[in-house]
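Run log // design_07
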């Protein structure tokens, strides 16, 4: 089962990566930029595996670049306290 198949596992995965990035000293702007790049990659290359991912994919597809940056930033905030570490 892929982390993309389950929304909670996906959030935990992202939370773990976010915690690692912060421990490595990445600043918030760089984290948000990386989140935008990941979101853009997922939107173009990965078929959504659940309803939540489908909503994000649909929103991403109609959003301007500025709005996509905001979506990425909100996803970072969503997973900030998630993860296993």
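design_07 sequence
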């Amino acid at each position: 089962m892929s982390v993309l198949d389950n929304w909670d596992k996906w959030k935990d995965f992202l939370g773990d990566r976010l915690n690692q990035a912060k421990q490595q000293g990445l600043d918030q702007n760089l984290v948000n930029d990386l989140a935008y790049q990941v979101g853009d990659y997922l939107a173009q290359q990965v078929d959504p595996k659940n309803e939540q991912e489908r909503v994000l994919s649909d929103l991403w597809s109609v959003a301007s670049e500025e709005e996509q940056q905001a979506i990425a930033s909100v996803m970072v905030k969503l997973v900030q306290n998630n993860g296993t570490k």
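The mean pLDDT is 86.
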